[in-house]
Specification:
Elements (H helix, E strand, L loop, with lengths): L4 E4 L4 H13 L6 E8 L2 H6 L2 H18 L3 E8 L2 H11 L4 E5 L13 H7 L5 E5 L3 H4 L5 E5 L4 H17 L2 E8 L4 H4 L4 H17 L5 E6 L2 H8 L5 E5 L13 H9 L4 E4 L25
Parallel strand pairs: 1-2, 1-4, 2-3, 4-5, 6-7, 6-9, 7-8, 9-10
Antiparallel strand pairs: 5-10
Helix pairs in contact: 4-5, 10-11
């Protein structure tokens, strides 16, 4: 579960979708941080733009009132939305950044827009993406899905899913997708035998997961996991993009999921390990960050 959760808001429905999802993911008793990024143009940097800061503060207050969120409010000036959210996540040692998807997508689907994509790549913490319209259809998290293949990234995703399942009383489903092997891997073994052997091994791994309904299928990982999302209330995956450790860099599968997931999605940075469960006290004062980066 997450204790230091930052939610990117923009005064529109995508920000409220993110708030709705963040409220389900934050640990009981912890406050959210609602963050609005003022894009720092040369004119804004030169003038100080107190009026712009006041508008940002009013927007944050309106969003908190509209959603009745128990949240601290922070306004950040930065060259871009992604940079501002990354900066704040690092300053606050956040463990989750919650954002909405593109408002032009279908209701119930996560579609990545420019701001969402920028907020994903390079984040120092996990990122949750709320599908379009999620605030209007939010339901309890009854089933959590995990993309699993035995890798360290998938083990971290499964560990998080177990924590969240305990919090929500949810069931866990896991899916391993066996992709077509390369000819170099198959060697002299007939294709049919190689695929059958790989699928059998995957099914055995899934059956060995304690307390998890596991399954293994043949196919393309990104497409199969996107379809799997229609069967669960939340999908958790690890990032396999090879950026710096503990930075979220989208690999091809997680990038596809971010644009096609049929449920809320949580993506963990590469190198994430299960965190301890300390009791943390949060200072409840509202703050306004005037720094630029």
């Amino acid at each position: 579960m997450f204790r230091h959760v930052i939610v990117g808001v923009d005064g529109g429905p995508t920000g409220r979708d993110a708030i709705a999802l963040a409220r389900l993911l934050v640990a009981p008793g912890e406050r959210l941080v609602l963050a609005h990024v003022r894009e720092l143009t040369p004119l804004l940097a030169a003038s100080g733009a107190l009026e712009d800061l006041d508008d940002s503060t009013r927007l944050l207050q309106q969003e908190r009132d509209a959603t009745a969120a128990d949240a601290e409010l922070v306004s950040v000036a930065a060259p871009s939305v992604g940079r501002g959210l990354h900066q704040l996540a690092e300053e606050r040692d956040a463990d989750l950044l919650a954002i909405g998807s593109c408002s032009r997508g279908f209701v119930g689907r996560a579609i990545v827009g420019n701001d969402t994509r920028e907020a994903l790549n390079g984040a120092s913490c996990a990122v949750a993406i709320a599908p379009h319209g999620y605030a209007d259809v939010t339901a309890a998290i009854a089933t959590i899905g995990v993309g699993y293949d035995g890798s360290p990234e998938s083990e971290a995703a499964l560990s998080l899913a177990r924590d969240l399942a305990a919090q929500h009383g949810a069931a866990i489903r896991a899916l391993e997708v066996v992709q077509l092997p390369t000819p170099a891997y198959v060697g002299m073994v007939p294709w049919g035998d190689a695929l059958e052997s790989m699928l059998t091994g995957a099914q055995e791994r899934m059956a060995a997961l304690d307390g998890v309904q596991g399954d293994a299928v043949l196919g393309l990982a990104a497409e199969e996991l996107a379809a799997f999302g229609a069967l669960v209330d939340l999908l958790v995956v690890g990032s396999r993009g090879y950026g710096p450790l503990r930075r979220l860099m989208l690999g091809s599968s997680s990038a596809h999921l971010a644009s096609h997931a049929r449920c809320p999605l949580v993506v963990l940075p590469r190198g994430t390990t299960p965190a301890p469960d300390p009791q943390v006290s949060i200072d409840g004062r509202d703050t306004v960050a005037r720094q630029s980066s």
